[in-house]
Write a structure and sequence with these properties.
Elements: H1 10-17, H2 23-34, H3 36-41, H4 44-51, H5 55-64
Helix pairs in contact: 2-5
Length: 68
């Protein structure tokens, strides 16, 4: 029986792609990596406010990682 390839977690995706992202997206990515619990439990607006970034930055980060 073939084994399905392992998919990277969203945090692994961010960590791997971080060096290739533009500055603000790197800031957003670092915030998420450093604050995993908050990223999973708070709203995007709350996270953006705490990070000192615009909510749209986190939307662009998700898109840069291949999410719709």
């Amino acid at each position: 029986m073939p084994v399905a390839p392992l998919r990277e977690t969203p945090l692994e995706q961010i960590r791997l792609r971080l060096p290739d992202l533009p500055g603000r997206l790197q800031d957003a990515g670092r915030y998420i990596v450093d604050n995993e619990f908050d990223a999973a439990t708070r709203s995007m607006r709350d996270i953006a406010s705490a990070a000192g970034l615009q909510p749209a930055t986190f939307t662009r980060l998700a898109q840069a990682l291949g999410h719709a």
